[in-house]
Design brief:
Blueprint: H1 28-42, H2 49-56, H3 60-67, H4 70-94, H5 102-119, H6 121-130, H7 135-162, H8 171-187, H9 189-192, H10 202-215
Helix pairs in contact: 1-2, 1-4, 1-6, 4-5, 4-7, 5-6, 5-7, 5-8, 5-10, 6-8, 7-8
């Protein structure tokens, strides 16, 4: 009678092309970071779940397992950004009760923001791209990311303007000019690199971005 093959000699399961090896796993946070970068570069409509899966080295089924739909994945990215920017918002809010002068509070707030943008440039790029959205996606973006920061930074700008510590014509307009100007300058550093060596010197680049932003308020 023929012996049955032992488990140790059983042939290995052939890996399907494009599918991660059995047992391989990519964490939810990593998937969201990759999705954030892809959405930031291409925008919601031009991004596919398969493209994000390919960038992550996993099968699209894994993204479907974690998030369900493309809409749910985009919403999860927004929630991840809200979580990551939470400490920045809290640190900025705390400046209102600090012993710093009105101008110094704004300077410190911009330092905090610039640190965040340099550490995670795709967050600023994501906002710049996603800001073209309309309807529910736009509303979610505003309520979870933009408004919390607006509500802590604008009072600092307004106060500095009232005290003549900085030149502030309109605090809301200034808020958006600063955020968009700083985030895009950092996110598109590769374009600036065509004309300047600064993006290759991150510490110096960061200082110059801060000094330039403050110079605009002098």
């Amino acid at each position: 009678m023929k012996k049955a093959a032992s488990p140790d000699t059983s042939p290995a399961v052939k890996r399907t092309r494009g599918r991660p090896a059995q047992g391989a796993s990519v964490g939810r946070d990593k998937l969201l970071r990759n999705a954030r970068k892809t959405f930031a570069k291409r925008g919601y409509d031009a991004t596919s779940v398969r493209e994000i899966a390919r960038e992550s080295g996993v099968d699209a089924a894994l993204l479907a397992h974690h998030f369900g739909s493309k809409d749910a994945l985009w919403e999860a990215v927004v929630e991840q950004i809200a979580e990551h920017t939470g400490p920045m918002v809290a640190a900025t809010a705390s400046l209102r009760a600090s012993a710093l002068g009105a101008r110094e509070r704004v300077e410190r707030a911009l330092e905090i923001y610039i640190d965040k943008v340099f550490n995670e440039p795709d967050i600023g790029l994501f906002f710049a791209t996603a800001a073209t959205e309309e309807g529910e996606r736009f509303d979610l973006l505003v309520e979870r990311i933009v408004r919390p920061y607006h509500d802590v930074l604008v009072p600092l700008l307004s106060d500095a303007g009232k005290r003549k510590a900085l030149k502030v014509v309109d605090a809301d307009v200034l808020f958006f000019m600063l955020l968009n100007g700083i985030s895009k300058t950092v996110a598109y550093g590769h374009v600036l690199q065509v004309f300047s060596a600064l993006p290759k010197q991150q510490a110096k680049y960061k200082r110059v971005v801060l000094q330039t932003a403050l110079g605009m308020l002098a």
